[in-house]
């Protein structure tokens, strides 16, 4: 059995998780939808996400407590994202696509279950069963907001050991995962997802001409940074107020997020 998995550690990202789930449904995926939640998620939110996701799985929190490195990122809240490594313990699934709750699926991406992370579970090279797209800020690292993996308990245990013994160089899950899957940048092309599967239009650096060239092929939008779509102000007619950006592309993508929210989530 194969599944899409996301993570919700508190109520703050609930709107994101709901929109993500509905965007996957609207794209007519044939795979299961699962969400990992912690005890901090309230009962009303649990009831709402259970209407969208096939499996709601409660897990324990894992926090890096890496204050110094998180300060370098300017994102102190990211320590709790180490909870994400529970994905690798979901061995009831043969393969998963993990998506952060601040992503939006633009079209069906089920093809990744066949084309990426096809390494055998008994392959001594763990990098063969993991695939991700490069990070816009440092392309020799992958961005951990979207990845494909074959869950294996030994990888889950190995990630915990690395976290305890070495920590994470950025204080969050991305640094830890890049340290563990350290052969990603030198691996097979099937383990290096195209940027269209994890496009970060709100990142500090963006290549505007390339965005124009490939925007019709975008598969997953990842709204990185502290300011999320559900925090944008809107005019009375529902159009978003272009706060903190002059990029018409970013504004358009946030508007698409809100369109999904209005159609499937808002007022229900």
From TrEMBL:
<dbReference type="InterPro" id="IPR002495">
    <property type="entry name" value="Glyco_trans_8"/>
</dbReference>
<keyword id="KW-0325">Glycoprotein</keyword>
<keyword id="KW-0479">Metal-binding</keyword>
<dbReference type="GO" id="GO:0046872">
    <property type="term" value="F:metal ion binding"/>
</dbReference>
<keyword id="KW-0963">Cytoplasm</keyword>
<dbReference type="GO" id="GO:0005978">
    <property type="term" value="P:glycogen biosynthetic process"/>
</dbReference>
<dbReference type="GO" id="GO:0005737">
    <property type="term" value="C:cytoplasm"/>
</dbReference>
<keyword id="KW-0808">Transferase</keyword>
<protein>
    <recommendedName>
        <fullName>glycogenin glucosyltransferase</fullName>
        <ecNumber>2.4.1.186</ecNumber>
    </recommendedName>
</protein>
<comment type="similarity">
    <text>Belongs to the glycosyltransferase 8 family. Glycogenin subfamily.</text>
</comment>
<dbReference type="Pfam" id="PF01501">
    <property type="entry name" value="Glyco_transf_8"/>
</dbReference>
<dbReference type="GO" id="GO:0008466">
    <property type="term" value="F:glycogenin glucosyltransferase activity"/>
</dbReference>
<dbReference type="InterPro" id="IPR029044">
    <property type="entry name" value="Nucleotide-diphossugar_trans"/>
</dbReference>
<keyword id="KW-0320">Glycogen biosynthesis</keyword>
<dbReference type="InterPro" id="IPR050587">
    <property type="entry name" value="GNT1/Glycosyltrans_8"/>
</dbReference>
<keyword id="KW-0464">Manganese</keyword>
<comment type="function">
    <text>Self-glucosylating initiator of glycogen synthesis. It catalyzes the formation of a short alpha (1,4)-glucosyl chain covalently attached via a glucose 1-O-tyrosyl linkage to internal tyrosine residues and these chains act as primers for the elongation reaction catalyzed by glycogen synthase.</text>
</comment>
């Amino acid at each position: 059995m194969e599944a899409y998995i996301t993570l919700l550690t508190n109520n703050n990202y609930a709107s994101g998780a709901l929109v993500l789930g509905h965007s996957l449904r609207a794209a007519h995926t044939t795979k299961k939808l699962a969400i990992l939640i912690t005890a901090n998620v309230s009962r009303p939110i649990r009831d709402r996400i259970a209407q969208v996701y096939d499996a709601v799985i409660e897990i324990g929190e894992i926090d890096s407590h890496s204050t110094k490195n998180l300060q370098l990122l300017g994102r102190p809240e990211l320590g709790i994202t180490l909870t994400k490594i529970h994905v690798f313990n979901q061995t009831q699934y043969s393969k998963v696509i993990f998506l952060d709750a601040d992503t939006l699926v633009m079209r069906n991406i089920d093809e990744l279950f066949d084309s990426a992370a096809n390494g055998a579970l008994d392959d001594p090279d763990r990098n063969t069963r993991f695939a991700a797209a490069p990070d816009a800020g440092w392309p020799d690292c992958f961005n951990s907001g979207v990845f494909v993996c074959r869950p294996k308990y030994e990888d889950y245990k190995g990630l915990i050991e690395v976290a305890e013994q070495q920590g994470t160089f950025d204080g969050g899950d991305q640094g830890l995962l890049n340290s563990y899957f350290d052969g990603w940048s030198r691996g097979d092309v099937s383990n290096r997802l195209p940027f269209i599967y994890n496009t970060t239009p709100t990142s500090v650096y963006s290549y505007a001409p390339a965005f124009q060239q490939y925007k019709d092929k975008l598969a997953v939008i990842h709204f990185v940074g502290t300011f999320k779509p559900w925090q944008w102000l809107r005019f009375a007619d529902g159009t978003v107020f272009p706060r903190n950006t002059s990029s018409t592309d970013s504004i358009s993508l946030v508007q698409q997020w809100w369109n999904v929210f209005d159609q499937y989530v808002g007022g229900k």
